[in-house]
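Colleagues,

For the teaching module next term, I've prepared a clean inverse folding example: a structure given as tokens, and then the sequence designed for it. I'd like students to try predicting residues themselves before seeing the answer, so please don't circulate the second half yet.
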């Protein structure tokens, strides 16, 4: 059923020009996750293949309300940027094998699934914030910066909830709420980064361009937390 991921990526790319195709790309990606979930008997959230596919769908899902925003209806760069991002991660998933191994006991809990799903929703919103930051830098429209703030705020809320659910899962799995492995360390860096970013934005201090750039940097930190740490460092998190 991997052809659904290829179809999803193609539709996302066409969605850069015709937004109904973007919604169709999201539907195809969600259908792939549903098929995987039925095959596995659980949410497909373990390993690089499944998490990249889930990330692709998360980007499409989180971007859909922004695509319907009046402020972005004339912004073709936003639909192009989000379509390319969702397609990229969907195609990246095809580079890795789709494992069908049973879950170890420590992962058989709702807290684990909630932790991972919320984390990817937040990553998707941080990606949206980065694209909106680029649009603001190119055009200078203040309302775009306001949308970037909203995306980051909701993403921050999801990420905070992901950390809480991850702590509860960690307590049941290892008897502690927090382990200072590289993944947890970079998770804390990402959370602190957006805490300060949102604080500065709320207080109105700092230049608009600096805030826009910081939103782009924040997504780079999120990507390293997700992919960089998993590939380059040993951690309790495989991905």
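(Answer key — instructors only)
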């Amino acid at each position: 059923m991997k052809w659904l991921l290829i179809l999803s990526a193609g539709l996302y790319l066409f969605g850069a020009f015709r937004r109904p195709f973007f919604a169709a790309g999201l539907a195809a990606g969600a259908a792939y996750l549903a098929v995987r979930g039925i095959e596995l008997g659980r949410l497909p959230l373990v390993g690089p293949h499944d998490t990249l596919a889930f990330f692709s769908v998360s980007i499409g899902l989180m971007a859909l309300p922004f695509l319907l925003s009046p402020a972005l209806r004339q912004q073709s760069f936003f639909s192009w940027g989000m379509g390319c991002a969702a397609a990229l991660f969907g195609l990246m998933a095809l580079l890795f094998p789709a494992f069908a191994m049973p879950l170890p006991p420590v992962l058989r809990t709702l807290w684990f699934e909630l932790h991972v799903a919320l984390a990817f929703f937040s990553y998707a919103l941080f990606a949206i914030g980065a694209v909106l930051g680029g649009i603001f830098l190119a055009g200078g429209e203040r309302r775009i910066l306001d949308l970037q703030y909203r995306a980051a705020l909701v993403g921050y809320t999801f990420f905070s909830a992901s950390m809480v659910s991850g702590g509860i899962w960690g307590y049941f799995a290892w008897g502690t709420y927090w382990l200072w492995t590289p993944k947890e360390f970079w998770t804390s860096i990402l959370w602190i980064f957006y805490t300060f970013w949102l604080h500065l934005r709320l207080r109105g201090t700092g230049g608009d361009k600096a805030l826009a750039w910081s939103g782009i940097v924040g997504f780079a930190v999120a990507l390293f937390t997700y992919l960089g740490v998993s590939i380059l460092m040993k951690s309790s998190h495989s991905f």
